[in-house]
Amino acid sequence: MLQVFGNLGLVNNLNFQFTNRYSGAPDYFTKTERVRKRWDKTNFVKDIRTAEVVPWLERGGENASIFWDMSGNTILEPHMSEFEVGGYKLGHRHPYEAIILTLNGSGFSLASKEGLKESDSVKVDWKAGSLVSPPYFWYHQHFNTGSTKARYFAMTEGDFPKRLGIPLQVEQIEADREDPKIKVRFEEELRKAQAAKMRAELHHHDDDDPHHHNDHGGIMFAERDWKRKLI
To answer: What CA–CA distance (Å, rounded) separates 2 from 197?
Structure first.
C-alpha cells in the first residue's frame, strides 16, 4: 500500500471497515454451509488432513475433493483432493497455475507442455510435505505409489482468468484418450515402490532380531521371491 499511495498516514488511519469480508459475527469461524456438491462456504477449516472430501469419480478411480469459498475471497480458490492406494487422477490442464502441498502419501506426477505422452513428460517425485507446481497450462497427472491414500492441498486462481477474458478452459484427458504407456509406467513405479518397501521391512526385521547374522544370500533369496510375487 505504501508503494501505491506513498502515504503512511493513509495506510494507518484509514477508517473504512471491510464488513463484507469480516463483520465480527460470533459464528464467523464456526459456520459452514454446503453451497455446491463439492463446495463449502466457510472461513475456518480445523484440520485439512481429516476434513471431509466428496467423491468425484469423473476425475478417475476413487478420487474425492472439496473446494472452499473463504472470507469473501474472489480470486484464490483453495481445495483439497484425495485418491486411493494404487490409483491416480486423470491427466488435465487449466489456464492458471497451481501450488500443491502434499499432506500425506507418496507418489509422483508427470507434466508436459503439449499433450501428455509418457516419452516426453517430466517426472516429479513427491511425499508428505512436498510442494509441486505445474507450469501454466501444462498437462499434468498425479499417481499414488504409497501404502496410504494420498491427500494434497492446492491453491489456484479458479475461474479468475476466465473473468479476465482469457479464452482457455480446463481440459481433461479421459481414460480412453490416455497414452497407454503412462499406465505401464505407473505399474512399473508401483512395483519399484512395493519392492523398496519390502526390502526396508526385511532389513528392519533383521536389525530387530537378536539372533540375526549377516547372511546376504538369504536376503537375496527373499528379494528374488518377493519380486516373483510382484511380477
So the answer is: 54
Q: What is the value of pTM for the model shown? A: 0.80
The answer to whether 172 touches 116, Cβ cutoff 8 Å, is: no
Q: Is 148 helix (H, G, I), strand (E, B) or coil?
A: coil
- Mind listing the pLDDT tens digit for each residue in 200-229? 888 776 666 655 554 444 333 333 443 433
Up-side HSE of residue 35: CA atoms within 13 Å toward CB?
10
Query: What is the per-residue pLDDT across 51-108, written as a single tens digit (0 to 9) for each?
Result: 999 999 999 999 999 999 998 888 999 999 999 999 999 999 999 999 999 999 999 9
**CA gyration radius, the chain:** 23
User: In angstroms, rounded to a whole number, what is the distance separating the alpha carbons of residues 173 and 27?
Assistant: 42
- 27, burial (CB in 10 Å: exposed 0-12, middle 13-18, buried 19+): exposed
Give the three cell numbers for residue 153.
492441498
